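wait is this the right file?? whatever heres the structure
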């Protein structure tokens, strides 16, 4: 899967839901920057209460049905397509599992349509990423240490990472640990 698949995803997701971008960096709320391996990538978020992406979810749907992850970053690297399904949290994890699971379900549905209509023949590599929002106050001395990147399995993800106190995240580093 290559640039052509990224182009197909880009044509599928309305621009209103694309994340802000500069070169190969995608920006989430709270000034978190996610760097893709190259410019051939797409970042989007369907987590928008002002402009809900699913008209049939407007109103009061059953609990958790309209929850969505904070972002999806798609890119091609070494002839494979990677989809990072990302949720940001503060000190309380809340319902991140449901939000990540719904993001994964949406992407599964999207890729089953792509396969059905012969836009692709293989599944992407899904990676779940929980990002703990970095502190806003300056640290009082040395209080943090480098994250240990330990891949794990989590809920609907064979590959899952937990990232703490980092505003500048290079997504390629996670691929090296798969």
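ok assuming it is, sequence goes like this
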């Amino acid at each position: 899967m290559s640039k052509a698949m990224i182009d197909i995803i880009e044509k599928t997701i309305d621009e209103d839901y694309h994340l802000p971008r500069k070169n190969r960096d995608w920006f989430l709320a709270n000034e978190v920057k996610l760097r893709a391996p190259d410019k051939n990538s797409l970042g989007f978020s369907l987590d928008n209460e002002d402009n809900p992406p699913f008209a049939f979810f407007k109103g009061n749907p059953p609990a958790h049905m309209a929850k969505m992850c904070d972002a999806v970053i798609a890119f091609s690297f070494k002839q494979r397509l990677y989809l990072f399904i990302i949720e940001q949290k503060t000190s309380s994890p809340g319902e991140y599992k449901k939000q990540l699971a719904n993001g994964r379900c949406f992407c599964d549905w999207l890729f089953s349509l792509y396969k059905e209509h012969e836009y692709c023949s293989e599944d992407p590599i899904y990676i779940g990423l929980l990002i703990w929002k970095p502190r806003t106050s300056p640290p009082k001395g040395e209080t943090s240490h480098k994250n240990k990147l330990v891949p794990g399995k989590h809920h609907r993800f064979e590959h899952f990472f937990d990232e703490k106190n980092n505003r500048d995240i290079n997504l390629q580093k996670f691929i090296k640990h798969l």
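The longest strand covers residues 80-89. so i think its the right one actually
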